[in-house]
Amino acid sequence: MTPSMNMAAMESPAMRPPPAYWLGDGGGDGFGGSGHPSENELRAILDSSADAIIVVDSRGVLRYANPAADRLFGRDLQALRGTGFGFPTAPGRTEIDVLPPGEKPRVAEMHVTSLTWEHEAASLAILRDVTERKAMEDELRLAAQVFDNASEGLLITDAGQRVLKVNPAFLSITGYEPGEVYGRPMGDLLDSELQDPALPGDIEAGVREDGRWEGELIKRRRDGTACYTWTTVIAVRDEAEQPTHFIVTFEDITRWKEAERRLDHLAHADPLTDLPNRNAFHQHLDLALGQARRHGDVVAVLFLDLDHFKPVNDALGHSMGDEILQAVARRLRETVRGSDLVARLGGDEFIVLVRDIQRAADAAVVAQKVIDQLSTPFELYGHEIHIGCSVGIAMFPDDGRDGDGLIHRADQAMYRAKDHGRGLFAFAGEAEDRPLNLPLRTGHSADCS
């Protein structure tokens, strides 16, 4: 082997055998004869071969090399004829690496056989340049490994959007078996009653116009559970720009969506009672007021403050006080209508957003229900606990045009109710010296027995 070439041989039993070439007849008569091509004709055939052809005698001397061999080895082998040529001459089939001077390494399949050349024993080597084929095979092998080992679900369809192949991650994400997927329309696997019915059409339009679509899909797994995926659909086109295949990737983002919902809940929920917190209440109130402005609706804000809660909390401890607040939250949820919203502002202050009412008297009905429910004793760990509440009511649009204004007016009305004896409700629009709607309730002592 010369320093300019690297021919580390590797056995390749699966290699396809090249055609056999016989140079000379072994009888010493050379080329020619009736019915046989002449020597010049045979050499012309060898010289025009796309495969490299080399003949080395038993002493390792290069006797023949065709032009394809010059191209494969990147040098003029004709100039080396008659000189020692270190070359593997053991009969058989191998795969060798060739290192042409100043060029990238190449890979060749080689078939070596024995023959007689000009009355001497020699070896014939036929080499086929398979560099590009090997590179393509490596790319295909790598692509297959990526396809099989990707964490994202992958799906390939034909031009008619029928499923041809899916990877293990797709089966893991969706819970399907391969036989349940192959041949099915792609749309069946992208559509779901959990998402906008117009979405499949949007996907089709995006792929048709831009060659791809990506976005969030909500699917059902085979077991019926919801699965959120970030999905990309790509069209593979031919030279005429016609789609031949579609590639779909699914990234399972269900855990991210669940974490997002948990974080959103923590940001908008009171940690003790799980009611909406102040920020969440403001958001709901702003939405309700926007709708009320458009449709001329009436909205009420009820500001609640518990009566006699502090002495109970001091007497029984903060742990018991927390449980009382949780019990209050449960009663409030059960008392108001489904269209109303209960929130905790902090401490022993709660607030209710009342929608879908026609007049102030409707808000008064809700306020009285709340007062009645919270005046009923709470039974906790053998204690009968009596508290209650005072309620201030502010009406939109009469008492304020924005959320902050309504909450402030309702807060002021609540303190007015407390000043008149507690267990009452008061409207923000009532005059300071006007008697409240209901007489003072009695029997609301902080009985902690």
Quick take:
The chain is of the alpha+beta class. The chain has 3 domains: 9-130, 2-Layer Sandwich (Beta-Lactamase), CATH 3.30.450; 150-257, 2-Layer Sandwich (Beta-Lactamase); 269-427, Alpha-Beta Plaits (2-Layer Sandwich). The chain is built from 13 helices and 18 strands.
Task: Provide a descriptive summary of the structure in words.
It is a single chain. The protein is an alpha+beta fold. It has 3 domains: about 10-130, PAS domain (Beta-Lactamase, 2-Layer Sandwich); about 150-255, Beta-Lactamase (2-Layer Sandwich); about 270-425, Alpha-Beta Plaits (2-Layer Sandwich). The chain has helices at about 40-50, 65-75, 130-150, 170-175, 180, 185-190, 200-210, 255-270, 280-295, 310-315, 320-335, 360-375, 405-420; strands at about 10, 50-55, 60-65, 90-100, 105-115, 120-130, 155-160, 165, 210-220, 225-235, 245-250, 300-305, 340-345, 350-355, 380, 385, 390-395, 425. The strands form 4 sheets. It has a 6-stranded antiparallel sheet with strand order 1-4-5-6-2-3. Strands 8-7-11-10-9 form a 5-stranded antiparallel sheet, with helices on both faces. α10 packs across α11 (about 320-335) and α11 (about 320-335) crosses α12. The termini are far apart. The model is unreliable at about 1-35 and about 440-449 (pLDDT under 50).
